[in-house]
Write a structure and sequence with these properties.
Elements: H1 9-17, H2 46-70, H3 76-80, H4 106-111, H5 129-132, H6 139-157, H7 166-187, H8 196-201, H9 204-208, H10 213-219, E1 224-227, E2 248-251, H11 258-276
Antiparallel strand pairs: 1-2
């Protein structure tokens, strides 16, 4: 860690609470105390990548029908009234859902656009998720799941030679690291004002390369800008898909529901019990 200065829990809490609400952070803020000559190699990502494979594979079945709605993969007619003229094996869309919203705009759901725009008499948003969904109830929660899915896909399909520019590759690795840091921080069990959970689930050397513990906790409390390409379900890893100065999406991790966090809390504990405890790792909660 860049700084070993002893800091009290009260001091950290006070500093976090005094943050400006509208402050937004990005990956560079987490590396501002690093030497520009220090490099991040792929091996520093591997412990975290294995965790994210586990998170995705463990969560996907439980969340399948909820994710299908947000991915616009469900049959519109099943959403409208639960009736489709085609059987599930004949329809090109998925039928398995209990979600109902009769006023949902057909064009918006099927194509993600509507020529009527604000004049449309139907809804361009999911209005009944609180009634029908247990976990993925907001766009923020869907964004977090998409990031977990992306990192899982990155772990299985990334080809380093595709990102030819070394600076781009380094910036990509940093973006991956800080995205994982955010997700682990908000979804794993932990002690208040501590980063022990980050050292447990991610490569400790990688965490030690970041800003001081106090500053890290403060930055993690801010909305974070993440590369837009991380949310692209159809992204092709065989192409030159990453650009350092590409579009970003701002995510406020503090907007996650108790139900969503507790669902993933359980998966993190299962991962610890099954993969880390037997190796002598201590639970930091």
């Amino acid at each position: 860690m860049a700084s070993k200065k002893l800091i009290t829990t009260d001091a950290i809490t006070k500093k976090i609470n005094n943050l400006a609400i509208n402050k937004i952070t990005d990956t560079a803020h987490f590396y501002r105390e690093r030497s520009g000559k220090d490099k991040i190699n792929f091996a520093r990502l591997e412990k975290g990548l294995l965790l994210f494979i586990y998170l995705y594979e463990t969560a996907k079945n439980t969340l399948a029908s909820e994710i299908a709605l947000w991915d616009h993969r469900l049959c519109y007619y099943m959403i409208k009234d639960g009736k489709c003229t085609k059987t599930s094996d004949q329809c090109h869309r998925e039928h398995k859902t209990n979600y109902r919203q009769p006023n949902l705009c057909s064009s918006w759901y099927k194509t993600r656009s509507c020529t009527s725009n604000s004049k449309c008499k139907h809804s361009h948003q999911f209005e009944e998720v609180l009634k029908y969904h247990h976990y993925i109830r907001t766009e923020t929660e869907m964004n977090i799941y998409q990031l977990i899915r992306f990192i899982r896909n990155f772990a299985g399909h990334f080809i380093d030679s595709v990102i030819e520019d070394q600076n781009n590759q380094q910036n990509l690795y940093k973006d991956i690291v800080i995205t994982m840091v955010h997700i682990v921080h908000y979804l794993s069990r932990k002690k208040i004002n501590s980063i022990e959970h980050l050292n447990l689930f991610l490569e400790a050397t990688t965490i030690n390369q970041l800003i001081s513990e106090q500053d890290l906790l403060i930055e993690l409390g801010n909305p974070y800008e993440i590369p837009e390409v991380f949310f692209d379900l159809n992204m092709n890893f065989n192409t030159h898909w990453y650009r350092f100065n590409g579009d970003k999406r701002c995510i406020n991790f503090q907007q996650l529901s108790k139900e969503f966090v507790e669902f993933f809390n359980t998966i993190f504990v299962e991962f610890y019990e099954g993969r880390l405890k037997s190796r002598g790792a201590k639970a930091p909660w």
